[in-house]
């Protein structure tokens, strides 16, 4: 019996495709609820977690202290389906790269936009994408920064998937914040 079980397990392990490797990217673009919803449905994105990064403070929380941190999302993705470059392209059309006070109706340091990079490849691609945006808007100052990634701290559970758990409140917030209206003003109408 054990020989049959071993043969069956070996056969299954050979027949099943290997699980694709995943990679992670961190983006800050104002409200993490909005960034989470903007990335979650992209093909190849496996998970999006809202949280904080970029600061010195240990264990930042939303209702407590998160001074010095950006609201950000950590995107886990399958690079065989969606590239880091495609995530960067998606990032830019979902932020206001000219606002150094925050994003849309959310103002303050924690709502500023930044790309947090891990490693040389992410750095090169992020710097090139930043330069392309600067070139596209020569008469405006792009204030979005490319920064080294540090520790990412997931925010409290009630903030995760907020757009799914509270769809009416989320849509009301997003509309009243003027996010989509401003994005269309900057980038033009983007395909859904």
The residue-averaged pLDDT reads 89
Q: What would you report as the Rg, rounded to the nearest angstrom?
A: 19 Å
Q: From the helix content, strand content and strand pairing, which structural class follows?
A: alpha+beta
Outline, from the CA principal axes?
globular
Low-confidence runs (pLDDT<50, min 5 residues)?
1-18
Record the strand order, biggest sheet: 7-6-1-3-2-8
Order of helices and strands: HEHEEHEEEHEEHHH
Q: Based on DSSP secondary structure assignment, what is the total number of beta strands?
A: 8
Roughly how many Å apart are the termini? 55 Å
What proportion of the residues form beta strands (DSSP E)? 15-25%
Sheet with most strands: 6 strands, mixed
Please, how many helices? 7
Topology, pairings included?
Layout: H1 2-15, E1 23-29, H2 32-40, E2 45-53, E3 70-77, H3 84-92, E4 102-103, E5 106-107, E6 113-117, H4 119-136, E7 145-148, E8 153-154, H5 162-165, H6 167-177, H7 179-187
Write a structural description.
The protein is an alpha+beta fold. It has seven helices and eight strands; from the N terminus they run H-E-H-E-E-H-E-E-E-H-E-E-H-H-H. It has helices at residues 2-15, 32-40, 84-92, 119-136, 162-165, 167-177, 179-187, and strands at residues 23-29, 45-53, 70-77, 102-103, 106-107, 113-117, 145-148, 153-154. Helix 3 runs parallel beside helix 4 (119-136). It is globular, with a radius of gyration of 19 Å. The model is unreliable at 1-18 (pLDDT under 50).
Short overview:
With 192 residues, this protein is an alpha+beta fold.
Give a quick set of tags describing it.
six-stranded mixed β-sheet, alpha+beta, two-stranded antiparallel ribbon, 7 helices, 192 residues
């Amino acid at each position: 019996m054990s020989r049959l079980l071993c043969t069956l397990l070996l056969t299954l392990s050979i027949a099943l495709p290997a699980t694709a490797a995943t990679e992670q990217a961190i983006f800050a673009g104002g409200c993490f609820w909005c960034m989470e919803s903007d990335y979650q449905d992209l093909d190849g994105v496996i998970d999006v977690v809202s949280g904080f990064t970029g600061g010195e403070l240990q264990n930042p929380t939303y209702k407590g202290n998160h001074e010095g941190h950006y609201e950000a999302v950590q995107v886990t993705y399958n690079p065989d389906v969606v590239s880091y470059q495609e995530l960067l392209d998606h990032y830019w059309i979902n932020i206001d790269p000219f606002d150094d006070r925050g994003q849309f109706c959310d103002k303050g340091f924690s709502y500023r936009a930044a790309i947090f990079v891990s490693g040389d490849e992410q750095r090169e691609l992020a710097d090139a994408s930043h330069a392309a945006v600067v070139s596209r808007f020569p008469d405006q100052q792009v204030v979005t920064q490319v920064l080294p990634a540090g520790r990412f701290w997931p925010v409290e559970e009630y903030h995760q998937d907020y757009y799914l758990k509270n769809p009416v409140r989320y849509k009301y917030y997003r509309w009243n914040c003027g996010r989509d209206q401003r994005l269309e003003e900057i980038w033009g109408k983007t395909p859904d």
